[in-house]
Amino acid sequence: MSEDAQSARTEVPDVVDEEQLDMVVAHLRAAAPRWAMTSAAQRAVLVARVIADTRAVAPQWNAAACRAKGLDPQGNDSGEELLAGIGMFVRLLSDYRRSLIDIERYGRPRYPGPVHVRRDGRLVIRVLPASLLDRVIYTGNRAEVWMAPGVDESGVRASQAAAYTDPLAHAGVSLVLGAGNVAALAPKDVVHQLIGEGRVVVLKANAVNGYLVEYWRRALAAFIDAGFVRIVTGGAQVGEYLVHHDGVGHVHITGSQSTYDSVVFGSGEAGARHKAAHQRQLTKPVSAELGNVSPVLIVPGRWSRREIRYQAQHVATMLVNNAGFNCLTPRVLITHRDWPQRREFLDELEGVLARIPTRLAYYPGAFERRDRFLAAHPGAHQIGSGAPGAMPWTLIRDVNPTHREDICFQFEAFCALTSETALDAATPEEFVARAVDFCNDVTYGTLSMTLLVDPRSRRRRAMGRALDQAVADLRYGCIGVNVWHALGILVGATPWGAYPGHEPADIQSGVGTVGNTYMFSRPQKSVVRGPFVAWPRPAWFVTHRHSSLAIHRIFEVQCTQSWRKVPAALWAALRP
User: Where would you tag: which of 28, 185, 468, 559 has the fewest CB atoms within 10 A of its CB?
Assistant: First the structure.
């Protein structure tokens, strides 16, 4: 790890004294009824202050996160960190503020629509774009929320924003066990519990990003000063004490299945026995956003050279983002074995990766996880080299799809590694159907996946029907069609979480959602869509030469909602 990265991880004082933790929880319990009775308009004022305070602290916050991850705070990659961190946080805040204003005026958040009912009876609501600014910032992209079967629009409207129809019934203290990989996930989870669920929050910072606590406190000062949020640090014993505290009524986890299991069933051999017997040791409500082997399903077609280059850059960006330390990083590319361009695409992908500097493997245990994959697949292609502590981009080609227990299908690498497997099928339509079954029945997790298909293939009637059925049948909380499924967490309005229905003893990608700024009560999945080749090339592509400039200017638009700042953002995005 570099000296800058070491200095960025300066430890913050641990709160390990149980008496102090008791005081924190008691303070929040006393504040919970007051928060419940705080009007939507008053909450909107607090959110506006958080947006302003986040904008003010953003330069220092982003620079610290870049240094900790081995990135140059002034370099082009700093825009990636801003977008996926603070920018994502501001987007959530802005959407929640709009919903709070709607609740004050109309009694519920108003979604933009349109709304339609599918042939299978499921209700689908368009939530992006929601404004003219959205149409500019998210050019060509749209997002929709699919409701659970049996939910009609009158039911959606009647059940929206439940925490505001009976606020005292929702009052209580939520413990947020913050994630360690993305700089703004913990604050996002805090805001979701406050605004979306109506609970006051104690945030236990993950040790990996404890260096960010000072910036979180400055950004969340409006809620902290009012007594509705407290942030504590420390080791596992602090989290364990709070998890079982009588004053904490709800726990939210962003992390791994092993973390969830230890919280709900206990650790070690005793925890394993409890899980096998379906005996929860923690009976209070727990929501969780956990890991996933995110597939990318590549529909065979006749792609132009330009399309191959674009999609290779698209998939490379998915892997490179945050050095591969994302729960939504693609871990398996699913191709058609007889696709004539399969090798050409994979070669192009490796070519793109070879031109991208490797990143610091900053997250604990990365090399150990990578080595387990290499032991199973010694022929893996390792691409690029860098400074000490950097990990080569790694692609494991042609994993046998009949080996259903292969590590590539069953375990999340959580590092700079992905794999590819090829399915046999007589036709492209049959491939799509088989790939859906493979995603649903073989690959681990149900959080998110992406489907890539060229427009000529989509226009064929048989393929159009196959794709529509595929999106309907895929059991994932978020599905991207021609756009990385990460858009589903970036935009805020779409609920983000596992496909519903997991039992605690087989939790996979988790339970419950975050985001969901329209406060829907029974969402089933989100679908985000984009053009096969977007123009201009998205600023978040790792190959965009002016990514940092464009993203910083888009961030200013999001913070201010000012049209005066749009031309400068567009100019930066359009620069070659």
Answer: 468
